[in-house]
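Feature request disguised as a bug: please show the residue count (320) next to Nicotianamine synthase in the output. Example input:
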Amino acid sequence: MVCEEEMLIEKVVELYEQISRLESLKPCKNVDMLFTELVLTCIPPSPIDVTKQNKRVQEVRSHLIRLCGEAEGHLETHYSTILGSFDNPLDHLNIFPYHSNYLKLGLLEFTILSQHCTHDPTKIAFVGSGPLPLTSIVLASHHLPSTTFHNYDIDPFANSNATRLVSSDPDMSRRMVFHTTDILDVNNVLQEYEVVYLAALVGMDKEGKNRIIDHLAKNMAPGALLMLRSAHGARAFLYPVVDPCDLRGFEVLSVFHPMDEVINSVVIARKYPQPMPIHSLDQQPISSMILPNKCSEIPAFNPLNHANIIEELAIEEQLL
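Example output, currently without the count:
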């Protein structure tokens, strides 16, 4: 097993070095080939814990996540621009190479959401929607036909591209709203959403991700649901990992690690009702420090039997 792990790391580092030497990460034959090879290297289930690797591997991983994020942004912009040239862009979404992955991920996330939400949410916020907001589009089109999606992105160009995709569809243009702002500048409005999605690449490192999660914990409505994307095993070389213990102020409801070509893990948590502040010895309130300390994982997702796949996690609430 150690040998397999060493070979995996060696391969990832080799690909990182090739990718980091590229002049541009915009879609082209060489870029597509290298990132495809990287994804195929990281997808197979692996017991590797990337957080326990040496400093060099940690640095490679940190840089690689940023390179993957930049390449993903270029890829989405490229296809959003192409789609925006059609009269009815939503009829041509399948030209995006990973469209089928988003359909599977959308079904998975809707199934998980349905286990913890007794009704279709009226309003959902998606943080980090980007130029090709496929999660919102898939959920709005296939699973939540009456829900309004408020998509947040810091990039005005991304929102301009995304708006163009839905503008010709009367229903979708009414239910897809776009906001150009940093989510850290959004406060009271977050109270309006029953569900908040946090995209995988919003907060590229642990500190950035935790800053956003803490902001959401402070401003979301009590009882509202937070859907996050994480990564597991070797897939953590591609995306940031969300540690359930970092979800201060939230009760973690379930964690799911896909075993197929859907790369992201899915975490769903519920904001705790505001508890009475409990003071520590130095008189500082620690009510936001309720953390889950035990998680049991959920079996592999089977889209043919999605109604019964989600199990509640055993969560012990603990005051630190």
